[in-house]
Amino acid sequence: MEKMKLKLLYSDLRPELEMIEKELEQAVDSESLLLNDASLHLLQAGGKRIRPVFVLLAGKFGDYNIDVMKQVAVPLELIHMASLVHDDVIDDSEIRRGRPTVKAQWNNSVAMYTGDFILARALERITEITAPRVHEILSKTLIEVCRGEIIQIQDKYKLDQNLRDYFRRIKRKTALLISSSCELGALVSGTDEKTAAHLRRFGYFIGMSFQIIDDILDFTSTDEELGKPAGSDFIQGNITLPILCARKDPEIYQLLKANLNKELSDHERLEIVGIIRNSSGIEEAKAMSERYLQKALRELSFLPKGPGVKTMRKIAFFIGKRNF
């Protein structure tokens, strides 16, 4: 239901998004039946397609041409998909979007090469754009995403990490790719530099808010709503903002410490999820997400008025208040 509400917000882009969906399928097509099956397995599980949406909306501020915009929108969604396949190997995840992950359906080797293949297809596709600046931004973003993944591995099971560790992690893991989606959409449509800069900062701030809400939902949603076990972040050793805020309570800190890096029964998992859900950590994390949301909205206030701004504002509010 919530996903339907989100799609209604950008229903004006439906024809373009349907085209991009077909292009994504074509992009992962290969002569290998195994690669096809593994790639389509994730693609057909669906997704919010936030990155292509922001590419298209940013393009509305310039000379919008869908034949050009799709050459950026498709690679950015492919890069996101590749990172999810790799993430599931690193986190040993069995379920994503209600379906077995690629590593669970096949194995780690197939998953790693599937992720590499999807990433390679993204890089192949972006070569349709000849502007060096586009490749410079995308390559720097990819480097930072990889750094973020390594930092996440290094920070696993570290309950005593500080807030700065968390924010530098989600910046590289999520916010920069959304920021680049906005900036690249602006650049390939010939938008002026000032507008492109505001769009880049909007993408960064909304990306930070988006990831914080994602981390909150890991505790406040049900297994069914998430399509995976609630509390997965904690089980996998990923210390997120709700945990960092809730650990100030000495009793919660001791509980988390005692159960970190331990195989939990469903009863123990749901007990921890319930304690974090009812702690002050959730409200504190929401307040932090709201700060980033307001910063994102402020960037929109500097942009030329038009339907693009209106839709971006609606999506921003939805992201800040979403329940999935």
From TrEMBL:
Q: Per its Swiss-Prot or TrEMBL entry, what cofactor is needed?
A: Mg(2+)
What are the entry keywords?
Magnesium, Metal-binding, Transferase
Is Thylakoid one of the keywords UniProt gives this record?
Answer: no
- Identify the PROSITE patterns for this entry: POLYPRENYL_SYNTHASE_1 (PS00723), POLYPRENYL_SYNTHASE_2 (PS00444)
Keyword Magnesium part of the UniProt annotation: yes
- Record's InterPro entries? GerC3_HepT (IPR014119), Isoprenoid_synthase_dom_sf (IPR008949), Polyprenyl_synt (IPR000092), Polyprenyl_synt_CS (IPR033749)
One protein family per Pfam: polyprenyl_synt
Q: Which SUPFAM superfamilies does the annotation name?
A: Terpenoid synthases
Instruction: Name the domain of life.
Output: Bacteria
Which PANTHER family does the UniProt entry name for this protein?
ALL TRANS-POLYPRENYL-DIPHOSPHATE SYNTHASE PDSS1, GERANYLGERANYL PYROPHOSPHATE SYNTHASE
The record's similarity note reads: Belongs to the FPP/GGPP synthase family.
Q: What is this protein called?
A: Heptaprenyl diphosphate synthase
